[in-house]
Amino acid sequence: MSRSHIDLLRDPHFITNTIIEHNQLRNILSRLNTPVLIDYAQDLIKTIVITEFNKQTPTAAIIPIVDASSPIKKEILSTVLSEKELDIIHRYALDITQASLNLSKEPMGMGFNGDKALGTDQHVFAILGPHRGQYYGEIAVVFKRELMLHPSSHFSIPAATLFPNGHVYTCLPWVIDYGTQDSRIHQFYKSKLHCSVSGYEYAAATLLIAIIGKDNKTTSIDMNDVIRWWEKVDSHMVFESYLPSRIPLSYIDHVYMPEIVFNSLTCQAQHSARTIFRDKLTVTNNNGKLYETYLFEQFTKRFDPNTNELSTSKGTMINLFA
């Protein structure tokens, strides 16, 4: 999820709504045949969330528990729902709240000050191609290419963060710096490429050739030149993609992680990873530079050297949350 979405995890009302939208809980709540009973169930969830917030954030202002009649409402709900269903509601509400609080304490992403101005805090950051940025963590997630057809997905070269600080004008010396923050952000907006727009691949390839060949003043660049350049530069210099703020697990194509990282996970997390990803999960005994090299080799294997034509697939994908 995006940095802005993670920030919402500090809001108990947002967490309550998230829990209510959980598929299994929605199935249970659908059995409640009156608006009053549905309100009782939602109030019960809200009480669990707020109680946990107050327990885990003792230094913050105490959030008032708006409903002191939860035991009575729970008793009424027990006439319609089984004890097992009530336990599921309590367990899911507690687990999701605790996970949300833990994630909000150590949010992912670098939290660059310019992200909000650029609008990139609304996206999940990724690299369109092999990722060399080991400083972002050792778990590598490969998404399915269809995700780039989502209306919210786009990419740029170089990374968005290089526009406000002016470093982009060293990478792209043919771009004029008008000197103001607004003009630089506007140039980032104009540099964005969308995979659903015809001809995006030609624009991306032309820009990549210009960047790689500018020092030697050549446009004679092949795939081997691209791979060698990609391997030695920082990930902020290559195609940085900006994905939707929330991505379903079904759009994950593969997950890589070192064995030492996998073993550091809780037994429950290990079981969940193996159950959810199955043969899409690769745990390797490579570490450090060996792991970085291993990942790069795995990613570059995905390039087909015999492809004579660029992909002409076009379209738009929209996720509808039920």
UniProtKB/TrEMBL annotation:
Protein name: Uncharacterized protein
